[in-house]
């Protein structure tokens, strides 16, 4: 009865604050928010897990951006070829 709630049983480092929870009743695709759930096995802190997850996300989004730019450049090059300005375009009708 007098035991503290389970969420009160973790230890905080000096100067570390508890995480605040916000309840969102409506999830809408136009809301620019990302929800990340962090759970550890105790071998690292939740903060370390979050930082690691964020670093992985940044790396993945960077790779996605590079792949997108590559595909966009290839598409633009192919479109130029179809309009007669490509490698085999022009006099022979733009055929490859």
TrEMBL record:
What SUPFAM superfamilies would the database entry show?
RBP11-like subunits of RNA polymerase
What Pfam families does the entry give? Answer: RNA_pol_L_2
Q: What are the entry keywords?
A: DNA-directed RNA polymerase, Transcription
Annotated organism of origin: Neurospora crassa (strain ATCC 24698 / 74-OR23-1A / CBS 708.71 / DSM 1257 / FGSC 987)
For this protein, the record's PANTHER family field holds:
DNA-DIRECTED RNA POLYMERASE I,II,III, DNA-DIRECTED RNA POLYMERASE II SUBUNIT RPB11
| Gene Ontology molecular-function annotations | protein dimerization activity
**Recorded family membership:** Belongs to the archaeal Rpo11/eukaryotic RPB11/RPC19 RNA polymerase subunit family.
Q: What is this protein called?
A: DNA-directed RNA polymerase II subunit RPB11, variant
Which intervals hold domain DNA-directed RNA polymerase RBP11-like dimerisation? 18-65
BP GO annotations: DNA-templated transcription
Q: Name one GO cellular component term.
A: nuclear DNA-directed RNA polymerase complex
Keyword hit for NAD: no
């Amino acid at each position: 009865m007098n035991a503290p709630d389970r969420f009160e049983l973790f230890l905080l480092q000096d100067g570390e604050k508890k995480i605040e929870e916000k309840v969102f009743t409506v999830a809408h695709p136009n809301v620019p928010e990302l929800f990340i759930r962090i759970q550890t096995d105790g071998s690292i802190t939740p903060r370390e897990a979050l930082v690691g997850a964020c670093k992985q996300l940044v790396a993945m989004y960077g790779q996605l951006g590079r792949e997108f730019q590559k595909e966009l450049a290839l598409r633009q090059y192919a479109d130029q070829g179809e309009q007669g300005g490509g490698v085999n375009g022009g006099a022979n009708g733009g055929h490859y």
